[in-house]
Amino acid sequence: MDEAKAIKLCIAHRDPAGFEFLVNRFRKEALFHAVTFLENYEDAADACQESFHKAFVAMKSVKKMDRFYPWFYVILKNHCLNLIRKKEKHAQGRAEIYRSGVRSPDTEPGRFLEREEETQKIWSIVRGLKTEYREILMMKYAMRKNYNEMAITLGIPRGTVMSRLYHARRAFKDKYLEAYPDIASDKKKGGKNGRQSL
């Protein structure tokens, strides 16, 4: 089975086998994106499960679909943002989510975030960016997506991806320099050993 056949089975026949194929194919990517939004592995896993359920129910009203993940990503993103809005009403709970981070070292997100100290500094900046900047930085640098892949997933033109990524990098750099001026200064000098930093 391939993606096109699985989509056809879902739309034309409401066949669970077709949807199971799609879930298995895109589960890791969905989990990574959910972790990007929620910063917590367990919450992200729950969000993925709930979003896949919503998607299966919603597919009965879909008449045509060329690619599954860009359509599903909208459902997942909206679900994650709704969860964030609810948790922002409780400041203490929100702070706990930020502290908890990604707790499973056996997952791809866990491996990506393994360099604890530097990762925490970077993550503290990234999570302070607006959503569209945060998601595109994670797609580019954590998931290694190219411009075309990001454009398809986000449902925006390639040129918009390039522009958004440019502004996201600028926003990250400005906030990093503001938050860690001593580190930035040390890097300009070549680090503690006097070597030029990249």
Commentary on this structure:
The chain is mostly helical. The protein has 2 domains: 1-114, Orthogonal Bundle (Rna Polymerase Sigma Factor, Chain: A); 115-198, Arc Repressor Mutant, subunit A, CATH 1.10.10. It has 11 helices and no strands. It has helices at 3-13, 16-38, 41-58, 68-88, 91-100, 108-112, 116-126, 131-142, 147-154, 158-179, 181-188. The chain is elongated and about 60 Å long. Residues 90-114 and 192-198 have low confidence and may be disordered.
Indicate the topology.
Elements: H1 3-13, H2 16-38, H3 41-58, H4 68-88, H5 91-100, H6 108-112, H7 116-126, H8 131-142, H9 147-154, H10 158-179, H11 181-188
Helix pairs in contact: 1-2, 2-3, 2-4, 3-4, 7-10, 8-10, 9-10, 10-11
Mean pLDDT across residues: 78
Kindly report the CATH topology of the largest domain: Rna Polymerase Sigma Factor, Chain: A
Task: List low-confidence stretches.
Answer: 90-114, 192-198
Principal-axes shape call: elongated
N- to C-terminal distance: 45 Å
Structural class: mainly alpha
Q: Please describe the biggest sheet, giving its number of strands, its sense, and whether it closes into a barrel.
A: none
Oligomer: single chain
Give the strand tally.
Answer: 0
CATH homolog superfamily of the largest domain: RNA polymerase sigma factor, region 2, helix turn helix motif
* CATH architecture group name of the largest domain: Orthogonal Bundle
Helix content: over 70%
Strand content: under 5%
Question: How many helical elements?
Answer: 11
CATH C-level name of the largest domain = Mainly Alpha
Radius of gyration: 19 Å
Total individual domains: 2
Order of helices and strands: HHHHHHHHHHH
